[in-house]
Amino acid sequence: MDLARLVRGRRMTRRFRPDTVVPDDIVLDLLDLAGRAPSAGFSQGWEYVVLRAPHERELFWAAATPPAAAATGDDWLAGVRAAPVLVLAYADEPAYRARYAEPDKARPGADPSDQDWPVPYWLTDTAMGVMLLLLGAREAGLDALFFGVPGSQHGAVSKALGVPDGLALVGVIALGHEEQRVGGSARTRPRRTVEQFTHWGAFGAPRA
């Protein structure tokens, strides 16, 4: 599939079939794609936790689900819980700070502990890896969903999975096959056109 068709055909799946298997070799191929994302200073500050076995996934859902949602039940949650593979994407901020304290990156005379990061590129770079993984899933014939974990549950998830301190959970990719098409915001909100979000020469200026 060519890139343009791949990008335009990608969408999020919110209800997965519970009876499907995603082979490990496909997961490894997708993670290899994610590992080829660009990164500041070639820091490559990302880590991925793959959950395949039912008890692994249940451990995640138990830690990730706020008590109120667990008590009342949630249709979205039920659909996504059926996904046979979950991939958690973590960003490693300390890896970037350590990389930019090295001689070829450090600013002359600057204190390595006083680094200015107006954009947290450990999050940006990890997110680019996630996008590559999502596109790869589409090409491999898989359905996928990228979703976030409530902020209140980040610590519980990391603790349950033995994730070291200093790593930030960017989000989770669910992989599998769609059971039923469920509409999301893309069905109720129009896609912005290129003309609406492109500015030529200055913000708000049209193409001459």
From TrEMBL:
Keywords: Oxidoreductase. It holds the Pfam family Nitroreductase. It comes from the Bacteria. Residues 7-177 form the Nitroreductase domain. InterPro entries: Nitroreductase, Nitroreductase-like. Belongs to the nitroreductase family. PANTHER family: NAD(P)H NITROREDUCTASE YDGI-RELATED (PTHR43673), NADH DEHYDROGENASE_NAD(P)H NITROREDUCTASE XCC3605-RELATED (PTHR43673:SF10). This is Nitroreductase domain-containing protein. It comes from Nostocoides veronense. The lineage of its organism: Bacteria, Bacillati, Actinomycetota, Actinomycetes, Micrococcales.
